[in-house]
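Listing 4. Sequential folding, example run.
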Amino acid sequence: RALVSGAGHVATAAVGAAGGAVGLAGSALGMIRDARASRAGADRQLGYAARAAGASAPETQRRARELALQHNMTYDEVATSLAEGQEHGSVLEATNGQTSAQALDAALRTIRMANAEGVNGGQLLSARGRLGQAGLQGAALEEGMRSLIGAAQQGSVEVEQIITEGLPGASRLMQQRVAG
């Protein structure tokens, strides 16, 4: 009788363990599906941005994945930053004698810098594009980016706020100095 009772407890424990394993497998499968859906959404968003800029969507996506893996970022973060930078600053477009590959390199460097400095990558990319459109290039553009990061890190203002509120006045000032 004791042997039968002990066997019943073992069987109950085995059924409980099997149920737990099934639940864990179901949770893991759900997480995998969520990750795939998220990656597919990021691929679509980045693909649209790349094509709008005349760049190669597969190459842009591949390079975004590499950056994410190398710098402990998520692919979603990188893809969203690139899409935002393209939408608000045309950062993936080949301009000023740049190729599409060079524009992508500059955009990825900016995201890496934003990640290292704790600044929103999409906003910083948008700012880079807008500053470039306002005429800043080379060392002047890099100095402008460092200044934006410094102001944002002080916590008193967001990069987006600096660009939307400060750039129009700064652009007029630059044009006045060039003209006269």
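-- end of first protein; second protein begins --
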Amino acid sequence: LETQTTSSDLTCKKMRDKIWYNFIRSKYQAIYLCYFNSYLRTIDRVLIIITTVSSSGSIGGWLIWTHVPYLWASILGVAQLINIIKPLLPYLKDKEQLSETYIFYETLHLDYEKLWIEFEASEDVNAASKKYFELKEKELQILGKLKNIRVNNYKKIERLARRDWAEYLSINYDVKVEK
């Protein structure tokens, strides 16, 4: 027996593929942003420690600095430079918005997961299509508000995010992805 693929079967498959792609894409983006945000917060903490230590008069009074005054002067100079340029570093001033973006993608992922489950149960292309485009519009509105945030691709963060993403898909959906 030959089976014929109907137009509605293709439409159903296309909708399933769109939902699945955005479902897994949103999870990867959430994971990447979580790692990226953690990386920025670590840099911020290091800069705060350097400037705090250098501004402490009691540390400056340690006898060790009388033997190596150039080292203390260098530390003070670096700390002052950090104080000057830190407000200009785009990543650090946007870290709160990056946290919001991470939360947004986790929420979006959950919405796509609900849509995926609903669609798999009903295969109602019209209802799924409506909800799908509502989610895409929601994503565009949020990204419009966050358009000035820069998120660079760092290989180490990409590797970590891809590993966690592959593990998530494997555990929850039995999907194998190269790490």
